[in-house]
UniProtKB/TrEMBL annotation, chain A:
GO cellular component: extracellular space
Principal location class: secreted
Native source species: Pygocentrus nattereri
Disulfide-bonded cysteines: C65-C71, C69-C78, C323-C356
Pfam families reported for this sequence: LRR_8, LRRNT
Protein name: Asporin
Superkingdom of the source species: Eukaryota
Keyword field: Disulfide bond, Extracellular matrix, Glycoprotein, Leucine-rich repeat, Repeat, Secreted, Signal
UniProtKB/TrEMBL annotation, chain B:
Cellular component GO terms, alphabetical: extracellular space
Matching SMART domains: LRR_TYP, LRRNT
Pfam families, sorted: LRR_8, LRRNT
Listed name of the protein: Decorin
Keyword Acetylation: no
Length: 371, 379
């Protein structure tokens, strides 16, 4: 089932958590087995002739699944029901609840009370503007929390500490308060794009002590690369912001970066020496900016394979901008370089410019974009 | 385990996507025209590229090539076999989806079309989530590679038709909130594994639903067709059905015929319709019904057949036009008749004054608090 696979996802994410905290592997295996069982959704279907006994009445009295939801194998699927609040009668042993695409406006204190086994909670696309500070209490096992497409104005208080993935895409959050993620050392994936976050909205220390690997703050109001993000990051995506330039100190903290997305900003230049801070980088997207030249230092990045520079204002490409010059220098071959939609004329670029590229198809040069 | 996971993470995170291009004006071309994306060579056969020597070319350094790991589209996260690409503003299904993916989450993007080769080679995919895009067209062969697909979520798109040629392996289909007005007899042909079907919030009409359209769904246990324009309960629903949700439609009456054969039905939702009559004998057609929602309709009387029904425990009748409730409307005449105790009866927001309902009417109710009588809703 979907949820089973999501559970697997959880499991895998937990693998990532391993360097940071021990995991209860037996418990996880048990969960995994539950999810691996037969997919047949027969959770409700316990009406057989044994029910004729009066003794069973009391057992039947307890509602097994909220009306309109489907409950199977500890996964409660209540999406698309027009619900205006979290349904009662969610079975206490539930592992996952899908409440997306409803009209829920508020998460109340006791909405998830007693659901101490919950691993994943999906509240995407509701109208949630309020979450009670105690609503997520005692959710020690929660790993995935999806709150995207709601009306939240701040990162909810008292988030469960052991979350691995938090998605709050497209809300109304303008400020990331200090200690918003306090104690959440396991949070490895954080997606808070499409919120009106400016650089000044990120309070000092908001990301302290975190070990996040993937962070995306796209479609926000950033005018510079934030400097206080977790230093553990391997992927940082800041596309569709208003970043005007990239400076030497921008990436000093982010030495582990493997992928960097800065497309669709207003970047005019990348300061000399900036890229030396991220020696492990594999892929850089700087397309759809205002660059006048190829960012300096690409030819020193040993592992760089893909660099997007299309749709900029680059007028000249030098023969050594991409590939190292020293005889002994080692460099992974590029698999993708894009330069189309720039003023530079392709016939003015010398062929050896791309001497460290794996096959000529890896270079996109023409001045128009393929359809 | 730890090492493997870390390695995988690294590999998935650092994998770079190769380019595809069809228009390419290049000077170092020795290309076959019309060739598509180059197949990456296996690591062992990889060779450094042929490097054209131009004037002023520096000495050629030594280049290494890291063996290729699994691919992950940029900005997506690929954790082993789950490919998470939601909320990225993508206009197309990305290329380079790892072929061993089991779950592909593409929800909340701007995809308008599913092309023939978008899912090529994804034969291990179990779940495909395309919710909240702008899909109007799905190529007739697009799902053909998905031989293992169990869950297909297409809700919140702009589809005018239920896609043709869905995988026969499908167990759950959600096409909530699209522009679907018709369900043809062939639509679900051969889909014998479907268990859950959600078709709500579409502009369906009763005349647009072919008779027997659902007949091939031999294992289906849950069907929801809420918030559409249908005026009657669809006929010929499979007998495997245990839940049927038809709330928010324009259904005017419940006929015995429409419920014929639904011997496994346990939950029936008919709230927010225009039902004025429940025909005699209707409830006898659904002997295992436990929960019946008939609130917000135009009923003038308690539906017939409740005292004889053995299993109904919850019945919602609030917000109707019921003017009188008799002592024999809910419970059998004597205590000794086998009848599941009610755990919920709602009668509020009806013209009947609660003081005219005799307490003995509810002699087979589990608990007093199970009855909501007053003209206000219990909080």
């Amino acid at each position: 089932s979907t949820m089973r696979v999501l559970l697997l996802f959880t499991l895998l994410l937990l693998c990532h958590a391993k360097p940071y905290k021990p995991i209860k592997i037996m418990e996880l295996m048990k969960i995994h087995e539950i999810m691996q069982q037969d997919d047949r959704d027969d959770g409700d279907d316990d009406d057989d002739d044994e029910d004729d006994d009066f003794d069973d009445f009391e057992a039947n009295f307890i509602s097994d699944c909220p009306f309109g939801c489907t409950c199977s194998r500890r996964v409660v699927q209540c999406s698309d029901l027009g619900l205006t609040s979290v349904p009662r009668d969610i079975p206490a042993d539930t592992l996952m609840i899908d409440l997306q695409n409803n009209d829920i406006t508020e998460i109340k204190e006791n909405d998830f009370k007693g659901l101490t086994n919950l691993y994943a909670l999906f509240l995407v696309n509701n109208r949630i503007s309020k979450i009670h500070p105690k609503a997520f209490q005692n959710m020690e096992k929660l790993q995935l929390l999806y709150l995207s497409y709601n009306l939240l104005t701040q990162i909810p208080e008292n988030l469960p500490r052991n979350i691995l993935e938090l998605r709050i895409h497209d809300n109304k959050i303008s400020r990331i308060q200090k200690e918003a993620f306090k104690g959440m050392q396991s949070l490895h994936v954080l997606e808070i794009s499409a919120n009106p976050i400016a650089n000044s909205g990120i309070e000092l220390g908001a990301f302290d002590d975190m070990a996040t690997l993937y962070l995306r703050i796209a479609e926000a109001k950033l005018t510079a690369v934030p400097k206080d993000l977790p230093s553990s990051l391997t992927e940082l995506h800041l596309d569709y912001n208003k970043i005007g330039k990239v400076e030497v100190e921008d990436f000093i903290r982010y030495k582990n970066l493997l992928r960097l997305g800065l497309g669709f900003n207003q970047i005019k230049f990348v300061e000399n020496g900036t890229l030396a801070s991220i020696p492990k980088i594999r892929e850089i997207h700087l397309d759809n900016n205002k660059l006048k030249k190829v960012p300096p230092g690409l030819n020193t990045l040993k592992y760089l394979r893909v660099v997007y520079l299309h749709a900029n204002s680059i007028t000249h490409v030098g023969v050594n901008e991409f590939c190292p010059t020293k005889t002994k220098a080692k460099k992974t071959l590029y698999t993708g370089i894009s330069l189309f939609a720039n003023p530079v004329k392709y016939w003015e670029i010398q062929p050896p410019t791309f001497r460290c590229v794996s096959g000529h198809r890896a270079v996109q040069l023409a001045n128009f974009r393929r359809k | 385990m730890r090492l493997a996971c870390l390695t995988l993470l690294l590999v998935s995170v650092c994998w770079a996507l190769p380019f595809r291009q069809s228009v390419f004006l290049d000077f170092m071309m020795d290309d076959e025209p019309g060739s598509a994306l180059p197949e990456p060579l296996p690591p062992s056969t990889r060779r450094p590229p042929k490097i054209p020597k131009g004037p002023g070319a520096p000495e050629i350094p030594e280049f290494t090539d890291i063996p290729l790991g699994p691919v992950c589209p940029f900005r997506c996260q690929c954790h082993l076999r789950v490919v998470q690409c939601s909320d990225l503003g993508m206009k197309n299904v990305p290329e380079d989806i790892p072929v061993d993916a089991t779950l592909l989450d593409l929800q909340n993007n701007k995809i308008s079309e599913i092309r023939e080769n978008d899912f090529k080679g994804l034969k291990g995919l179990h779940a495909l989530i395309l919710v909240n895009n702008k899909i109007t067209i799905i190529h007739a062969k697009a799902f053909a590679p998905l031989v293992s697909l169990q869950r297909l979520y297409l809700s919140k798109n702009l589809l005018k038709d239920i896609p043709a040629n869905m995988p026969k392996s499908l167990q759950e289909l959600r096409i909530h909130e699209n522009q679907i007005s018709k369900i043809r007899k062939a639509t679900f042909a051969g889909m014998a594994h479907v268990i859950v079907m959600e078709l709500g919030s579409n502009p369906l009409t009763s005349s647009g639903v072919d008779g027997g359209a659902f007949a091939d769904l031999k294992r289906v246990s849950y069907i929801r067709i809420a918030d559409t324009n249908i005026t009657a309960i669809p006929k010929g629903l499979p007998s495997s059905l245990s839940e049927l949700h038809l709330d928010g439609n324009k259904i005017t009456k419940v006929t015995a015929d429409s419920l014929k054969g639904l011997k496994n039905l346990a939950k029936l939702g008919l709230s927010h319709n225009e039902i004025s009559v429940v025909e005699n004998g209707s409830l006898a057609m659904v002997p295992h019904l436990r929960e019946l929602h008939l609130d917000s309709n135009a009923l003038t009387a308690v539906p017939p057949g409740l005292p004889e029904h053995k299993y109904i425990q919850v019945i919602y009748l609030h917000s109707n036009k019921i003017a009188a409730v008799g002592t024999e409307d809910f419970c059998p005449p004597s205590y000794n008749t086998k009848k599941a105790m009610y755990s919920g009866i709602s009668l509020f927001s009806n013209p009947v004054p609660y003081w005219e309902v005799q307490p003995i009417t509810f002699r087979c109710v589990f608990d007093r608090s199970a009855i909501q009588l007053g003209n206000y809703r219990k909080k």
